[in-house]
Amino acid sequence: MIALDQLLRAYRQGFFPMSDPEDGKVYWCQPHNRAVISLAAYKPSRDVARLLRKKEFIVTIDRVFEEVIRGCAAPRKDDDKTWISEEIIEAYCTLQRHGVAHSFECWQGGELAGGLYGLAMGGAFFGESMFSRRSYASQIAFDRLVHHLRLKGYLLLDAQIMNPHLAKLGAVEISHEEYMLELEQALRKKAVFN
User: Is 61 helix (H, G, I), strand (E, B) or coil?
Assistant: First the structure.
């Protein structure tokens, strides 16, 4: 299993783990450019705002963390490989029990429709992964995450590696050097997640 102190130290130094789907080994990643979400500038899409007004989904926090991380690890329509190994699941479930890892769950009709998980350290939230079983479920969970982080005074929402879905949510890429400056400032902040 990944040593938890090593895992937390890695985040403080700008690294995060991913397991290789081929060999199952965990590797430490530190991209040249980092995807981040501006908590101040984020705005939900019109569709997300409409669904929030209609209360189509119910969002909870930390109710079914393991189910969320396993939903994130499940094969996708266009890709049957995952970077979330059993070793990573075990480490993050332990971190959740210690109050460091958190999940946002999106429910519809009493069923888990989607969600996301990540780590909270200081005034930084490290978004790890999200999944949807119903349209917009992960975007609703993401919107509620941003709302929660704003309320609690967080400074940094790290989205790690840019992809088209994150770009739609408003992520921008910054250099590693800029990221490390933002991370250092955020880690000094004493934000309380719950």
Answer: strand
